[in-house]
Specification:
- By secondary structure, the protein is mostly beta strands.
- The protein has two domains: 160 residues, no CATH class; 111 residues, Immunoglobulin-like (Sandwich).
- Helix content is 5%, strand content 50%.
- The chain contains two helices and 22 strands.
- The strands form three sheets. Strands 1, 5, 7, 11, 12, 14, 16, 19, 21 and 22 form a ten-stranded mixed beta sheet that branches.
- Strand 11 and strand 12 form a beta hairpin.
- The longest helix is centred in the last third of the chain and has 10 residues.
Length: 292
């Protein structure tokens, strides 16, 4: 049985979604399409008790002025049990962006349960009213979310540093890696590092109290009072640098008494963000890829 001491930090799953759409359907991929996104590169499988939220990037030949939520579609989806809000990005660099005749609109959609009885939110399409035109955006891989868990930080292995927002260019690039840091408040055995879907860790190494870096062989023993730094790259057989991926990472461990615990966090891989020094080349690269 797994236990947690605390669940803190509200979860925000930031997801940039792309697909291809015409007025009634978004599966046609033609260079003459007036509305482009990239749903075939979106992979979402998350847990968070409070909400699932994501950014949606819209490429349109007509400048977009108003966007309204029109519904989610899929098996066992009940729109009346969910509260959905749309927030517009106020960044001038985003709102004024135009490339290859397409304007970019960047919005955030937040989905919350409106009762404790709602346990998940799984859908295959999202419908938006874009300036009076219904755009149905389909995802090749259905979006899966559970309204439970999320960012869970437990006492025996306290998290000090938790990278949770990375560029998608990190996926399948072994030269890129991240470092997670922990403090053991009692003797523990780190059993496994895993993701909820799509991603797996590779080239895992660690140090304890600043020791020489060692290749990880699980389980890893960490004594009370010791600081663990563990680093790894992100690999995938599904996603690549053009993908938007969001899922949960889990650090499973046992205490000296044999109790089972885990720390977890929502992890996001974004093919566009962060935008550094007003460099919009990632948007152009992604657009070129989906418009092929």
């Amino acid at each position: 049985m797994k236990r947690t001491f605390s669940v803190n930090i509200a979860c925000i799953v930031i997801i940039t979604l792309f697909s291809v759409s015409t007025a009634g359907c978004c599966d046609k991929r033609t260079k003459s399409a007036d509305f482009l996104t990239n749903s075939s590169h979106v992979y979402i499988n998350t847990e968070c008790s409070s909400a699932v939220s994501f950014h949606l990037a819209l490429f349109s030949k007509q400048k977009i002025h108003e966007i309204k939520f029109a519904g989610l579609e899929g098996n066992d989806i009940y729109n009346e049990s969910l509260d959905v809000d749309i927030y517009q990005n106020d960044s001038d660099i985003i709102n004024s962006y135009k490339y290859q005749g397409y304007h970019l609109k960047y919005i955030m959609i937040e989905i919350k349960p409106n009762s404790d009885e709602v346990i998940d939110c799984n859908f295959e399409r999202i419908a938006l009213n874009v300036d009076g035109v219904i755009r149905k955006i389909s995802f090749t891989k259905p979006v899966e979310h559970k309204f439970s868990g999320g960012n869970i930080f437990t006492e025996p292995l306290q998290i000090s540093v938790v990278p949770n927002d990375m560029p998608s260019a990190y996926i399948n690039d072994t030269s890129q890696y991240v470092i997670y840091e922990f403090l053991a408040t009692e003797d523990i055995m780190l059993q496994e590092i895993r993701f909820s879907d799509f991603i797996y860790p590779a080239n895992v190494t660690y140090t304890i109290d600043g020791s020489e870096s060692m290749e990880a062989v699980f389980p890893i023993s960490v004594s009370k009072g010791q600081r663990l730094k563990i680093s790894f790259s992100f690999m995938s057989e599904t996603a690549d640098k053009f993908s938007y991926v969001t899922n949960n990472i889990y650090f499973d461990y046992l205490t000296e008494s044999g109790m089972s615990f885990y720390n977890s966090a929502v992890i996001v891989f974004d093919p566009i963000f962060p935008i550094l020094d007003n460099d919009l080349s990632p948007i152009r690269t992604l657009y070129d890829h989906i418009a092929e």
